[in-house]
Structures are given as structure tokens and as C-alpha cells.
Design goal:
It contains six helices and ten strands; from the N terminus they run H-E-E-H-E-E-E-H-E-E-E-E-E-H-H-H. By secondary structure, the chain is α/β, with parallel strands linked by helices. It folds into two domains: 193 residues, no CATH class; 74 residues, no CATH class. The N and C termini lie far apart (87 Å).
């Protein structure tokens, strides 16, 4: 979450911060041109989803989030870019212990915005504590069960999140963070203390997507085979109605080799022949049509 108060650093500290943020600018910005504020990005407490970051993951995020942009509601449109992190640090509260038995630790990001007429109201909302909660988007490759240590993605265990097993509360430990994408202002946070909603992208997402595509292709092939068999059966039926053919012949052999497009075309030809045959059978050869209607003999 954005801190309730924006800081007013001293001259020396302000020079340090300006030097840090100017690494991301095309020209050197002055103190009067920027608005500085801090955001609490995430922590190691168990959140509403039954997940928490490991201390190692927070260390990784501390480095990865420097330079990342701040947007709204994880909408990646360029027009939603509103701020950028120029530094980050881990802050501990030695007197507070988390539900997992660790010293409470959170990742604090230092952000800046360039003062413009367009963001004047947003700056006032940040100062006034209206825009406060933020959500992060990152890649956490490890999602471990806190009870048995199994990888819940590759080998899910039977332990249920939120239940106690002896003295252990089951939750998911997020670790091995490989990338940080962005942070966003949001309305509803998942982490109770830090006010953060997380979005994770797994390193195995690509492999899982490939498996899904392979399954879809297999399902498509099954459906295609079923459709071809149904078409062949319909063609055999129509040939019997039109030609009275019941034995295997050269045409039957050709039908077995036809693809769906060829089967559809052949079926349409047989349907047309069947229609003409039915019309010829229904129409009296010695009586003209009356008002376009046919009479059965």
C-alpha cells in the first residue's frame, strides 16, 4: 500500500534519491518536478489466499522491482503508467512474529511521479490516503506446501490450505522469484497487512500451455475421425438409396480414402441425385403439374 504520509527527506537524502530516480530519466529532474512516495509492495505474512512470500523471495523482489512501472488494475496500456520505483528495501519489525513463525518483513518501494497538471488530483489522492493499496505482478517458480514441502504445481499433496496439521498451518510458500513485471493501484488487496493483490506467472506456464494445446489437438483429431466416419456412413446410405449399391466397389474404396471436404462434396452430389430421383417418382408421367404441386400415384 502507499504510505499514509509522503516523506520530506533532508537535503542530503533528497540528493541521493534524485540521483537514484534520474537513472531512469532522459534528463535530470529537479526536486520541484517530482513527487516522491513510498509503497508497501508485499510481505511474508500469510494472506487471504493462504499464500506468503519466503524471505528469500522478498530479497529477490527487492532487486527485481527497482525500475518497474506503476499502473492501474494491472491494465498494461501505456496510458495507465503513472509512476516508477527507483529504489526498494526490506523493512523488519523485530517485535512482530508472523503466523509462520518468522519476523514480520515487508518490501518497501520508493516511487516517483513527474508533477503534471494531469496527475495533480492523483497526487492529492495519494497524499490523502485514498489511493493506497497496490498489487504486484511477478513470476514465482516455486509454490511449496508448508506442511510437507511438496511442489503444489507438479506433485499436489492432500493438505488443504487453511487447515492445521499438528502445529503447522497449511499454506503455500512462494519462492524462486525470477521476474517482476509491474505494480498497480487496486481497490481490494489480498494481503491483510501490506494490502497487496498478487498475480503469479509460473516458469512452467509455457510447458502447461503446450500440454493444453496438445490435448486440444488430440481432441480435434478424435472429433475429426468421428466426423469422417459419420460422413462415410451417410455416403454409403445415400449410395444405397440412389444406386442400390450394397457391395464393395471402386467407388467404395475411393470413399474410404476421401478427406472431410471430399466427403462433403460427394454427399452433396448424392443428395442432389436423390432429390431428382424422388421428384421423378412422385410426379405422374402422364399428368402435367397443377399450380406447381405434385400428386402421388
Amino acid at each position: 500500500m502507499a504510505e499514509n504520509k509522503t516523506e520530506n527527506p533532508g537535503t542530503e537524502e533528497m540528493e541521493v534519491r534524485l540521483a537514484q530516480l534520474n537513472q531512469f530519466t532522459r534528463r535530470t529532474l529537479t526536486q520541484e518536478e517530482v513527487f516522491l512516495f513510498d509503497v508497501r509492495l508485499c510481505d511474508n505474512e500469510i494472506d487471504r489466499d493462504g499464500e506468503r512470500f519466503s524471505l528469500e523471495a522478498l530479497e529477490q523482489l527487492k532487486t527485481l522491482f527497482v525500475g518497474k512501472t506503476g499502473i492501474f488494475d494491472h491494465n498494461p496500456k501505456g496510458e495507465n503508467q503513472t509512476a516508477r520505483l527507483y529504489a526498494a528495501e526490506l523493512v523488519q519489525d523485530p517485535e512482530r512474529i508472523t503466523a509462520a513463525g518468522e519476523v514480520y518483513t515487508f518490501l518497501k518501494g520508493h516511487a516517483y511521479m513527474v508533477r503534471t497538471d494531469a496527475n495533480r488530483d492523483l497526487i492529492r489522492e495519494i497524499d490523502g490516503g485514498i489511493k493506497k493499496e497496490v498489487s504486484i505482478s511477478c513470476a514465482a517458480a516455486s509454490q511449496t506446501c508448508s506442511v510437507c514441502g511438496s511442489d503444489r504445481r507438479n506433485s499436489p499433496c492432500s493438505h488443504r490450505i487453511g487447515q492445521r496439521y499438528g502445529d503447522k498451518l497449511c499454506h503455500v510458500v512462494l519462492g524462486d522469484v525470477t521476474d517482476a513485471y509491474e505494480w498497480s493501484f487496486v481497490a481490494v488487496p489480498a494481503q491483510r497487512e501490506a494490502g497487496v493483490t498478487k498475480q503469479f506467472r509460473s516458469e512452467t506456464d509455457g510447458a502447461q500451455r503446450c500440454k493444453q494445446l496438445e490435448q486440444q489437438l488430440q481432441n480435434r483429431d478424435v472429433l475429426l475421425n468421428r466426423m469422417q466416419n459419420a460422413l462415410r456412413q451417410d455416403v454409403v446410405r445415400l449410395r444405397f438409396l440412389v444406386e442400390g449399391c450394397t457391395e464393395k466397389d471402386a467407388v467404395s474404396a475411393a470413399v474410404e480414402r476421401m478427406n472431410p471436404e471430399e466427403l462433403l462434396a460427394f454427399r452433396e452430389t448424392l443428395r442432389t441425385r436423390q432429390k431428382h430421383l424422388c421428384q421423378a417418382q412422385l410426379k405422374r408421367p402422364d399428368a402435367p403439374e397443377q399450380n406447381g404441386a405434385f400428386r402421388m400415384t
